[in-house]
Amino acid sequence: MITRIDQLLAANERYAAKFSKGSLLSPPTLGLAVLTCMDARIDPARALGLEEGDAHVIRNAGGRASEDAIRSLVISSLLLGTREFLVIHHTDCGMLTFTNDEIRDQIRQNLGADASHVDFLPVADLDASLHKDVEAIRSSPLLPPDISVRGFVYDVRSGRLREVV
Ligand SMILES: [Zn+2]
C-alpha cells in the first residue's frame, strides 16, 4: 500500500533529481523573515515569490508571535542577518474558531489532561491580533530595535495581502 508519505518521498526524488541549489549559504539572501500561520492554504513561497535561500519562514498555528516564534526571530536576525520581518495572519483562520477555555475543556474531556497552563493564542479579531504581535516583536528586548516589522492579513479567497500595521 502506498501511503501519503510514500507519495511525498517520490516527489522528493523528482525534486532532488533536478536540484541545483546545493551551494546556497545559510543566511537568507533577501534578509527577510516571514512569520505566518501553518494553514495549508497558504504557500508563502508561491504567494510571495520566494525561492530557496531567500527568506526564513516561521510557521505556527495563527502565525502568532509566541515565545518560540520570537526565539526563531532572534536567531534569524542576530545570527543570520535578517533585517525585515513580515507577520502574516489570514482570513478564515482556525484560530478564530475557539477560545482557550473551549480547547482546554476538549483536552480534558478527550484525554483527561490539564492544559490550564497553556495559552493556545486563539484570535478574536484579526487586525487586533496582528497589531498585538507586531508590537510584541517590535518591543522585544531580545531583538535589534532597527528591524522593520510589517503586519498583513492574507485573504485565502483572493490570495492577496492587505497591510494592517
Ligand atoms: Zn490560520
Which key features would you list for this structure?
165 residues; Beta-carbonic Anhydrase, Chain A; 5 helices; 35% helix; alpha/beta; 18% strand; 5 strands; binds zinc ion; five-stranded mixed β-sheet; single chain
List the helices and strands and how they pair.
Blueprint: H1 4-17, E1 32-37, H2 44-48, E2 55-60, H3 67-79, E3 84-90, H4 100-111, H5 126-138, E4 148-154, E5 161-163
The structure holds zinc ion.
Zinc ion is lined by residues 37, 39, 62, 90, 93-95.
Describe this protein's structure.
The protein has a domain at 28-94 and 125-163: Carbonic anhydrase (Beta-carbonic Anhydrase, Chain A). Helix content is 35%, strand content 18%. The chain is built from 5 helices and 5 strands; from the N terminus they run αβαβαβααββ. Bound molecules: zinc ion. Zinc ion is lined by residues 37, 39, 62, 90, 93-95.
**Strand order, sheet with most strands:** 2-1-3-4-5
**What fold name goes in the CATH topology slot of the domain at 28-94 and 125-163?**
Beta-carbonic Anhydrase, Chain A
Cα-atom Rg, whole angstroms? 18 Å
Q: Work out the strand percent.
A: 15-25%
**Number of strand elements:** 5
Helix content: 25-40%
CATH superfamily (homologous) name of the domain at 28-94 and 125-163: Carbonic anhydrase
Do you know the CATH architecture of the domain at 28-94 and 125-163? 3-Layer(aba) Sandwich
Shape designation: globular
- Mean pLDDT rating: 97
Provide the list of bound ligands, each named once: zinc ion
Largest sheet: 5 strands, mixed
Distance, first to last CA: 49 Å
- Assembly type of the chains comes to single chain
What are the segments in which pLDDT stays under 50 over at least 5 consecutive residues? none
CATH class category of the domain at 28-94 and 125-163: Alpha Beta
Order of helices and strands: HEHEHEHHEE
Q: Structural class, judged by helices and strands?
A: alpha/beta
Helix count equals: 5
